[in-house]
Amino acid sequence: MGYSAAKINLEEQWERVQHLLLDEYGEATFTSWLKPLSLVDQKEGCILLSAPTAFMRDWVKNHYADRVKALFQSENDNVLQLDVIVSDVVPPQKPKATSSEPFIEIHNVGSNLDPRFTFENFVVGKPNELAHAAARKVAESESVTFNPLFLYGGVGLGKTHLMHAIAWHIKKCHPNRKVIYLSAEKFMYQFIRALRFKDTVAFKDQFRSVDVLMIDDVQFISGKDSTQEEFFHTFNALVDQNRQIIISADKSPSDLEGMEERLKSRLGWGLVADIHPTTYELRLGILQAKAEQMTAPVPQKVLEFLAYKISSNIRELEGALTRVVAHATLVGRDITLDSTQEVLRDLLRANDRRVTIDEIQKKVAEYYSVRVSDMHSPRRARTVARPRQVAMYLAKQLTPRSLPEIGRKFGGRDHTTVLHAVKKIEDLMGEDKTMCEDIELLRRTLET
Ligand code: ADP
Ligand code: MG
Fold first, then answer.
1. Structural domain that includes position 288
2. For the chain: N or C, fewer Cβ within 10 A?
3. Do 124 and 27 fall within a single domain?
4. Which of 220, 314, 317, 322 is the pocket-test mutation for ligand 1 (most atoms within 8 Å of CB)?
């Protein structure tokens, strides 16, 4: 076969591999990590791919390269190795715009930052490692790495903390850079105010002269047409000038409701990093770090108990610890397991009824003798696919999580996959008595 034919062949194989990757990892993961890869060449059995940045290259190598290689090998027997390099295209640096007189009451960041929300105080664990790594990268790099950085996750999982940490870091290391942090609500308020005073030009300039713009909780912009429009223009102007934008929301760009399609798609252009619900290990790590700063000593047993019992979000966890310590200080007694249970009785009851997806995955894996990692893995063999569907079904039934959230917990699968699993299990329960019994048994062990 001639060289060019081989090359065309390779490109076709790469295209098929990409389709398989999209299927396996779901759209969010695929768009963030796999779609930006390009096929460079094949040399002596080594497939060479390129990624736009070093950060992306490292992440892909650590998380996806093995799978990409395996898929390539199933397409092409000659493939022995796979490597990822950084593509050498450098984005153009545009000159900075000059800033205009501030009219709008938006200050350079500082006064509205929480001094506790720093990188030093952020405990890193599996659920937030990507978001944390991306935030650090953005805070530390001199040039714009990915634009925008889009952080998303449920309430109280550390989005605002990470954004403030980025701002603090830049403030410390590059005091001349202009950083603006504000909530989406504040952005809307400012915009509406500018409209009233007919000073939208100043409003625009104000934003367009920043180096780093952070907007927290953009889901609040949904539905407000004129604000969205303005946000979109500001956003485009800043991206064009190569300024860094950091956005947070409670959902992924594609799941944001009431948001215009072109804005959604634009928001997903950079790096989308999600913060998953906490694990026991992370909760315990956070409690230990917080306990060290408390006025009274908190026994390890109590920390473990709290980490085990309060799984909803970190804000609630912190609140619980503060309450326990405050109570002990007030009544002048040591903190014990008993006093903790007493002080937190209402809170614990509310948390008691909650089953987490992690527990479901663990119990279901145990029940069917498969590995917990099979719950996240792309493997489609019936022996692991069925238990995975059972776990998705139970997650839908026993937790308040949405279909996209559940999909994410199962190796970044699409919400339609979850929906399909739920239907499939319902169907099976209709025809198969064993399935009904399995589900019933699992439900009972999970709920008690
Ligand atoms: P979100 O903006 O996602 O709703 P926040 O950033 O306000 O959540 O976090 C809620 C609380 O939990 C804050 O007090 C924050 O400091 C704390 N927190 C969240 N994640 C972490 C973490 N990984 N390490 C330490 N504290 C954390
Ligand atoms: Mg927040």
1. 280-349
2. C
3. no
4. 314
Instruction: Assess contact for 48 and 85: CB atoms under 8 A.
Output: yes
Tell me which of 330, 349, 368 is where a domain ends.
Answer: 349
Asked if residues 148 and 300 have their Cβ atoms less than 8 Å apart, the reply is no
Identify which has the larger pLDDT, 264 or 317.
317
Dist. CA 214–CA 221, nearest whole Å? 14
What is the position in ligand 1's atom list of the atom closest to the CA of 158?
6
Task: Classify residue 170: in a domain, yes or no.
Answer: yes
Q: Which two tokens stand for residue 262?
A: 């072109």
Per-position DSSP letters for 243-265, written without gaps between them: -EEEEEESS-GGG-TT--HHHHH
108-162: pLDDT as tens digits: 555 688 999 999 999 999 999 999 999 999 999 888 878 999 999 999 999 999 9
Angle at 317 between CA 306 and CA 326, to 5 degrees: 85
**Position of tokens 């109570």?**
327
C-alpha torsion 442→443→445→448, nearest 10: 170
Same domain, 362 and 334: no
- In 3D space, the residue among 388, 394, 414, 389 whose CA is nearest the CA of residue 403 turns out to be 414
